[in-house]
Amino acid sequence: MNVAQAIAAALTPQGIFWTVLLLGLITFLHELGHYSAARRQGVKVDSFSVGMGPVLARRQWRGTEWRLSLLPVGGYVMIDGMAPEEDEHGQLRHSTTGFARLPALGRIAVLLAGPLVNLLLAVGLMTVMFSSLGVTANDRIRVSEVIAGSEAERLGLQPGDEIIALDGQDIPERTEIDGQPQPGYLQLGEVLSQPGPHTLTVQRTPGGEQRELAFDWTPVLNGERQLLGIRYGPGNDPVGVPQALGESLQTTAEAVPLVLGSFGKLLGEMFTLDLKGEQTDDVGGPIRITETVSQAAALNGWALVQIAVLLNLSLAVFNLLPIPGLDGGRIALVLIEMLRGRPLTFQQEQSVTAAGFLFVMFLMAFVLVRDVTRFF
């Protein structure tokens, strides 16, 4: 299989469909945040496009031209006063209308609204997921599938069972595997690497009767590694909506530094042109995202919700980076204006914005090339 065939195999129709749908919806809501914040302050929004590229259809509504564009990924809003205007001599200058006339905090509110919508979406989706499925509990092992004819089936394990102890010892929230801290539920693999008698303490339903399953285990037989025969993950604690919301906020607070760290590592790899660094899986390009979405869609709807949470968090954090051209870069320029007591000159701001645009384009190209090099 050559590189083109490998990439085509990774970009399944199902993955492409769900990727386009998720990214399109997430971007639409991001831009809707900017639109709403501008309109609430009396600023006209000239156009709102769903999609990018050539316009397929347009309709005027509430003073805004609503567009449907050809490329079904992304979108944009054109807010009055954001783009430069021409003076009487035909020279470009800062705009003097709409957005440009807002006080500094008003402009920050418009710029912040898009990423804030994505953060709220991530929190909302997590709250729905946690209140429906429960909160992840690493100190238990939840069986999701039992392989027919396996040792697990012989022991009587069933999907939905929760293993709460291994060899009579409670499963810790965190464990150490090969010197690295890992979630406690992964301790099962470490236990099964040891031959001899083992016991699993199993609870069929939350609060139900506990049973001990004893078996004699041989990790390697005739040169082949043996498997217990289950698919498993962390257990779940059922929670109400208020606790689910609290868990969502805490998870978001913990995730933001991790996302920032991933972007920081990506930038380090970009500056060193490291296409196959250890952090390759931290931030994916379009091919990686489509692969991941396809895998999630093949599992269940909740897996897609998890992907939507990650995409919203990533989009929010990335847009808030102080890179000219992004929302965070524009906010940085407003803050500089507040500190200086006057804005940068038009030429200075244009130079900074152009540099930021080139930087973002190079970053996108690097991520795409890194995506493709995985197939060589």
Entry keywords:
Pdz3 Domain; 2 domains; two-stranded antiparallel ribbon; 10 helices; elongated
Classify the secondary structure makeup into a structural class: alpha+beta
Largest sheet: 6 strands, antiparallel
| SS element count, helices | 10
> What is the element string, with H for helices and E for strands?
HHEEEEHEHEEEEHEEEEEHHHHH
Number of domains: 2
Instruction: Tell me the radius of gyration.
Output: 26 Å
Taken from the alpha-carbon principal axes, the silhouette is elongated
Strand proportion: 15-25%
Average pLDDT confidence is 88
Count all strands and give the number. 14
Q: End-to-end span in angstroms?
A: 10 Å
How much helix, percentage-wise, in residues? 40-55%
Q: Uncertain runs with pLDDT below 50, 5 residues or more? A: none
Explain the overall architecture:
With 376 residues, the chain is an alpha+beta fold. The chain folds into two domains: 3-10 and 103-133 and 242-373, no CATH class; 136-237, Roll (Pdz3 Domain). The protein has ten helices and 14 strands. Strand 3 (85-86) and strand 4 form a beta hairpin. The longest helix is centred in the last third of the chain and has 31 residues, at 241-271. It is elongated. The mean pLDDT is 88.
Could you give the topology of this structure?
Blueprint: H1 3-10, H2 13-40, E1 45-61, E2 64-79, E3 85-86, E4 92-93, H3 104-133, E5 135-146, H4 151-155, E6 162-166, E7 169-170, E8 174-177, E9 180-183, H5 187-191, E10 196-203, E11 210-217, E12 220-221, E13 224-225, E14 230-237, H6 241-271, H7 286-299, H8 301-319, H9 327-340, H10 346-373
Antiparallel strand pairs: 1-2, 3-4, 5-6, 5-14, 6-7, 6-10, 8-9, 10-11, 12-13
